Amino acid sequence: MAIIVPPRATRQRPLPANPPVARRPRSDRPSRVPTVLIVILLVAVSLFILLPVIWMVSASFRTQGDLVGNPTSLIPQVFTLDNYINVWQRIPFGRQLLNTIIFAGGTTLASLLFDSMAAYALARFNFPGRDVVFILIVVTLMIPIQVTFIPLYELLADFGWINTFHGLVIPRVADAFGIFFLRQFFLSLPKDLEDAARIDGAGEVRIFARIMLPLAGPALLTVAMFTFLASWNDLLWPLLVATDPQMQTLPAGLALFKGQHSSDYGMLMAGAILALLPMIVAFVFVQRRFIEGIATTGMK
Length: 300
Known about the structure:
By secondary structure, this protein is mainly alpha-helical. It folds into two domains: about 45 residues, no CATH class; about 210 residues, MetI-like fold. Helix content is about 65%, strand content about 0%. Helix 2 packs antiparallel against helix 15, helix 4 crosses helix 15 and helix 5 packs across helix 9. This is Carbohydrate ABC transporter permease.
């Protein structure tokens, strides 16, 4: 009896899901022409934006005759340091620099204290009229500050606070923008932190001082930079309250170089650069936290 052996089943290789495609030969490196054009365009725009600053630096090393004769030039015909020397003699520059530091620093510290407390209360506490109070604070941002100068001056004159540091600082101890900014930051923080602290027996003052304020460091630094810069460059308020040259701030003192019929632009630019240097140094040291505070405020 013949035995029939079935043929062996041959394995078939599975077809690849994606058949290989012939690759094109790699070309040379991509052209960098668009990148170079973008860099050139950005440099040109940056130089155009910085043109007033460049002119200010150039003018501070030029004589008055050079500036009047050729005001559009950026290259001094005669390089001189007399403007930086004379600015200390024409006005009490050192005293006014100290006044500016006291005014801007005192206003900033007071604003951080009162703005943070008001913002924390508006963000975390539930009390009748809370939303109404917040709306009224925001509405004050639309009121020009010049409207308040006359009643504030009369009030300070009645108190005898003209030509005093507390007369300069106290009317600026709170700011609607700072309250709004910090409130948005406090709203972004989780409430579990406060609940855990209350369970451990911490009071509201301790929660605010030991937990919330350290977490609000970037936002506080941002508000401090805005407040300090606004106070450092403020002209109208110190000019109104401080009539004594020994009590004036730098912006008010530098305004004396610009008269009705003639202006000493060289010394004015030199004084402006000297007043600008502390702000540049301060921003270089805090720019990272400053940008972080703006980027994270209001995010949930």
